[in-house]
């Protein structure tokens, strides 16, 4: 079911990803959940992420050797336990996730070309995709967006 991304996909050099592997996976998920709770605070308050309630979404960033396991509990994004099976998985390399985050590439194109791979509940995957499509984050992450665009260009140029 899961195939590797096309060989056109740039990847991070192993030297840059090695230190990330020294941290336990639950720590990565916990850190990401804190960031997402701040970033999506208005949407969480409005119940726009309720589709994730008690569901587990696993995000695998293959070239960075990172795995995030997230769920929604009591209206907050939390790190999901490793023994709880995922309802949805999204897998790909850093470059594809940056393309998605910076909106330099359409999510449908990334998924259709299997540069990002979806597993598990198709319905939940559509909810996540539609939620991400509806966000207007530029005003919230202004300077970070510039950094992410720079990183995307750099990886695209040198990460092959």
How are the secondary structure elements laid out?
Layout: H1 14-17, H2 25-39, H3 41-45, E1 57-61, E2 66-73, E3 76-79, E4 88-92, H4 94-102, H5 107-112, E5 117-120, H6 122-134, H7 138-158
Parallel strand pairs: 1-4
Antiparallel strand pairs: 1-2, 2-3, 4-5
The separation of the N and C termini measures 25 Å
The CATH topology is: Nonspecific Lipid-transfer Protein, Chain A
Rounded average pLDDT: 85
Radius of gyration based on Cα positions: 15 Å
Helix/strand order:
HHHEEEEHHEHH
Question: Strand tally, please?
Answer: 5
Q: List low-pLDDT spans.
A: 1-6
Content of β-strand: 15-25%
Spatial arrangement of strands, main beta sheet: 3-2-1-4-5
Kindly name the structural category. Answer: alpha+beta
Count of the domains: 1
Q: Please state the overall shape, judged from the principal axes of the Cα atoms.
A: globular
Q: Please identify which CATH superfamily we are dealing with.
A: SCP2 sterol-binding domain
Q: Tell me which oligomeric state these chains represent.
A: single chain
User: Total number of helical segments?
Assistant: 7
Instruction: Specify the CATH class.
Output: Alpha Beta
Query: Biggest sheet, in brief?
Result: 5 strands, mixed
CATH second-level architecture: 2-Layer Sandwich
Roughly what percent helix? 40-55%
């Amino acid at each position: 079911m899961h195939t590797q991304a096309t060989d056109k996909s740039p990847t991070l050099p192993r030297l840059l990803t090695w230190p990330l592997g020294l941290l336990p996976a639950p720590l990565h998920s916990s850190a990401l959940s804190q960031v997402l709770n701040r970033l999506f605070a208005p949407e969480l308050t409005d119940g726009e992420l309720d589709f994730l309630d008690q569901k587990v979404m696993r995000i695998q960033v293959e070239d960075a050797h990172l795995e995030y396991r997230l769920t929604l509990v009591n209206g907050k994004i939390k790190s999901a336990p490793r023994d709880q099976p995922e309802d949805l998985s999204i897998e790909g390399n850093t470059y594809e996730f940056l393309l998605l985050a910076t909106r330099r590439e359409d999510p449908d194109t990334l998924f259709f070309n299997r540069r990002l791979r979806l597993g598990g509940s198709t319905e939940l995957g559509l909810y996540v995709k539609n939620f991400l499509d509806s966000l207007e984050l530029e005003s919230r992450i202004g300077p970070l967006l510039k950094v992410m665009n720079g990183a995307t260009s750099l990886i695209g140029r040198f990460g092959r």
